[in-house]
Amino acid sequence: MATASNEFKLIGPSGTEQYNRSAVTLSCRLYPEISAVNMEIRWFKETCCVCVYKNRHVTEGRGYEGRVSLFSQEMERGNVSLQLRDCTESDFGHYLCQVTDGDRTEEITVEMCKCS
């Protein structure tokens, strides 16, 4: 059986990651390691949109302006991780990464917790 060109999975961190407030990276990668440059990437915290990457442009969600970024230079290697700066208590929780390529969408949940 032939493999469709848009078949991929999302791989997150191996467990709950620990973070500091200055800069947090929520790990998420495509498997196999294919380019995400022409895909649509959305990050959500609960029902709030954190950011959207579409047509090689990032749009930040309300309340996240100037605090979020993707690793655009690493998207060619399937890195769709989110970096969040200047974290506050309200930033801790579960985040959903959603990647769409054509008619295929994959998603994964990544937890950001404040661990001592």
TrEMBL record:
GO biological process: regulation of cytokine production; regulation of leukocyte cell-cell adhesion; regulation of T cell activation; T cell receptor signaling pathway
Subcellular location: Membrane
Gene3D superfamilies: Immunoglobulins
Xref: Pfam families: V-set
Chief subcellular location: membrane
Residue span(s) of domain Ig-like: 22-109
GO MF entries: signaling receptor binding
InterPro entries named among the record's database cross-references: Ig-like_dom (IPR007110), Ig-like_dom_sf (IPR036179), Ig-like_fold (IPR013783), Ig_V-set (IPR013106), IgSF_BTN/MOG (IPR050504)
Name recorded for this polypeptide: Ig-like domain-containing protein
The species this protein was found in: Ameiurus melas (Black bullhead)
Lineage, top ranks: Eukaryota, Metazoa, Chordata, Craniata, Vertebrata
